[in-house]
Amino acid sequence: MSGPVTVTVAEVITETADARSIVFDIPAEHVSAFAYVPGQFLTVRVPSDRTGSVARCYSLSSAPHEGRVQVTVKRTADGYGSNWLCDNLRAGQEVQVLPPAGVFSPASLDEDFLLLAGGSGITPVMSILKSALEHGTGKVVLLYANRDESSVIFARELADLAARYSDRLVVVHWLESLQGLPTEAHLRTLVAPYTAHEAFLCGPGPFMDAARTVLKDLGLPRKRIHLERFLSLGGNPFEVAEPVAVEEAETPASVEVTLDGETKNLAWPRRTKLLDLLLEKGFDAPYSCREGQCSACACRIVSGEVKMLNNEVLDGDDIAEGIVLACQSLPLTDEVTVTYE
Question: What residues does the 2Fe-2S ferredoxin-type domain cover (predicted)?
């Protein structure tokens, strides 16, 4: 299932002065829908006096093997959602969330990993790190940049993991208060020994842009560099009106879709977005914002062509590899093949 679920807050953990981890109790009938892979996120409905609610995406900082569903939220300047959650959420309260989504996740946990995180970008990276150490066989290097020592989320947990996995985990902290902002030159020196690793990057835009440039310059293949970007959602998937049926004179395209190991062929009306078609036909297609502002509905075009009406998250390399956003895709060719695998 892909629709909203009401869950209960089991615990709110103070991580730093401006960051909280929120653990959710998932109703028994929805446990299977909340099975997740490391690096994914939840979309949370945050109440609002002005609009009824707003939707915000928060990464899962727990790892699947830990048996809990936990997101971590850091306050941002003028960030309505993060500030409301940090100020108001308490154990026992109910909130609405969408099931886990996102593609910022390793295909295999047995790789050697280079993880680069800035600030709250540690959240999905932490899930990957713990999963790789628990279930993988490779080595893990984490470069974690923060403003100062007091702003390091998961500081004690990272120290414990570094001691427990001393032969496999290296943690490098970068503190702006002591070392200034990390430049491309700094990053090049730090990551140069690890260009055979699989790289995952999450943090402020300038940090990720610099790290990505360095990794590409050092020869790391594009397919081994993974970025997670979040924007404040303009739309609200918790209050989406039903799509209005549109009379279409054109002959529909046809689309072959592979999702959850099942392949089906569908007629695809030319003015119907791919996600809307799949949901209408009963597919459990992943989605979150439905505005082209997150990666939850990302899929791959195997053959044929589509047009995206809006895209604020995929870059040119993603598109060159055939990745598109189902919530914004219309068919351009008569036949299209799509996979979520």
Answer: 253-341
